[in-house]
Design brief:
7-stranded mixed beta sheet, single chain, globular, binds inosinic acid
């Protein structure tokens, strides 16, 4: 096994996964390179369920091992919201800025402002084996947006230890501490062990 299909249409994720997994001699290819185009409804209520749904659907369509990630922002004072609904928070009409503005509005007067980003990576193999890895990054919700970098909720996700939001970090600085960076590193270790047993 040296090729995985990424269950995503996001080319940035493909580059990020390859940068880490190429160390194991594993190449991650896109759905189109694998000759599949899979639309998966994210009907799960956990990051684990949704990443499994995506990875399994692409593994079944391609016949190849497939990897997927699911991520989001969980805010303590909002009982974990937006959570698995992070990309859809506030409905279809909102863009990234609209979503973080809604979050700031919903956080007005709320305490504590603690939150965490979560990323779960799942890899499904045609023989039924499954590898899952989770990464978390704790922080707080800022009172107003700061920074121009990143995407999504980055301008309002504040790291007290660095006194900066995710949007004020370089991509390298963010990857070193982010939920996705941690999940990918945990996944790399588990995949390395799995490949040794094969
Ligand atoms: P996914 O692509 O289904 O995993 O959706 C994840 C959603 O969570 C994104 O659309 C963002 O709203 C949010 N999200 C996940 N990771 C990050 C991040 O690193 N920065 C900002 N927002 C993120």
């Amino acid at each position: 096994m040296n090729q995985l299909v990424l269950a995503s249409k996001n080319p940035k994720k493909l580059v990020e996964m390859n940068a880490i997994l190429s160390q194991l001699g594993v190449e991650v290819c896109s759905e189109s390179e694998a000759g599949v185009d899979v639309e998966v409804e994210e009907t799960g209520t956990t990051f684990e369920e949704n990443s499994l749904l995506k990875a399994r659907a692409v593994m079944e369509a391609s016949g190849m091992p497939a990897i997927a990630d699911d991520s989001g922002l969980c805010v303590d004072a909002l009982n974990g919201a937006p959570g698995v609904y992070s990309a859809r928070y506030g409905g279809e009409g909102l863009d990234d800025v609209g979503r973080y503005r809604l979050l700031l509005e919903n956080m007005r007067g709320q305490m504590p402002r603690t939150a965490k980003f979560v990323s779960v990576i799942t890899c499904c193999f045609p023989n039924g084996d499954v590898i899952t890895a989770r990464g978390e990054c704790p922080g707080t919700i800022a009172f107003s947006p700061m920074g121009e970098g990143g995407f999504g909720y980055d301008p309002v996700f504040f790291l007290p230890s660095l006194k900066k939001t995710f949007a004020q970090l370089s991509p390298e600085e963010k990857n070193a501490i982010s939920h996705r960076g941690k999940a990918l590193e945990a996944f790399r270790v588990k995949l390395e062990d799995y490949l040794k047993q094969e």
